Amino acid sequence: MAEGLDWESLTEATSGAVGALVSTTALYPLDTCKTKFQAEVQSHGQRKYRNLSDVLWEAISKRQFLSLYQGLGTKNLQSFMSQFVYFYSYSYLKRLYLKKSGAKSVGTKANLVAAAAAGACTAIVTQPLDTASSRMQTSAFGKSKGLWETLAEGSLGEAYDGLGISLLLTANPAIQYTVFDQLKQKLLTQQSSMVLTGKAQSSQASLSAFSAFVLGAISKTVATVLTYPAIRCKVMIQAVNTEDESNKSTQNKARKTMMGALSSIWRKEGFPGFFKGLEAQILKTVISSALLLMIKEKISKYTWVMMLALRQYLLVSQSRIKSH
């Protein structure tokens, strides 16, 4: 069992999942405000939220500040699982490519394919949790339901609302981590060339916390700008109905498909509507992703040591079982 596991990929997955857990928790109120702001579509020239701070002020004025954390448990579970699945798949596919091709490094095209494939696996596994967390975040303050109750309100198919867009949005992490990896390799190469001692660079070499934060922010900004219209459509499809009851059935139908969401935005908000909330998305996701990658880089060495210890423990246990 111990020999059959890909321990390096497992280390990457664990480090990434822990980083996701910390960054998601730290920035969750901002994420809730962003999601509610993105989900609203202007109706008859009227809108409830004109900017991100309006959402925060609503929670404060209604004495529902803690409701900014509604759905945190579900979001943390989704973030942990998605990052674990993503980083394990991503690392495993890159190592598999190097093994099969005999190449010394993963090129940009192969990196994109590996990232997209990992993203697709992640979306399929975690989509119900993603849908549930979006519904919980966009519920009226103080009226959010639990995970199972939220999922039980609809069919299994509805739990996978937005899966098509999620698969399309595999381009987002694919772009992000490809840009990050390429920038990281260039920076490490430059740092290595400046070392005059002649010592070999460690296979576990990592970026400083600041460098990882900056590269993470740059890579996520690029990915977010390129894929934002699809991101907003996904939020609209997964969100609970926020319109008045007279428009309820129409809105729900429009939000079931990407084309319906795009049509709704175009009719009511025009072209600028496709980028409504972009600043909030960049603020939240860039900081979150930068924190995630920074934490992942800093704990990867310790995680690797823990995995080696676990591997040794499993090997010893297996040998004892066989000897008996």
Automatic annotation (TrEMBL):
What terms describe the molecular function in GO for this protein?
A: ADP transmembrane transporter activity; ATP transmembrane transporter activity
The record describes its membrane topology as:
Multi-pass membrane protein
In which compartments does the protein localize? Answer: Peroxisome membrane
Provide the residue intervals of the Solcar repeats.
7-96, 106-186, 207-302
Q: Which organism is it from?
A: Canna indica
Protein keywords: Membrane, Peroxisome, Repeat, Transmembrane, Transmembrane helix, Transport
Q: List the Pfam families hit by this protein, alphabetically.
A: Mito_carr (PF00153)
* Any one of the GO CC terms: peroxisomal membrane
Biological process annotations from GO: fatty acid beta-oxidation; peroxisome organization
This protein is called: Peroxisomal adenine nucleotide carrier 1
- What family does the Swiss-Prot or TrEMBL record give for this protein? Belongs to the mitochondrial carrier (TC 2.A.29) family.
**Domain of life of the organism in this record?**
Eukaryota
InterPro entries hit by this protein? MCP_dom_sf (IPR023395), MCP_transmembrane (IPR018108), Peroxisomal_Ade_carrier (IPR045900)
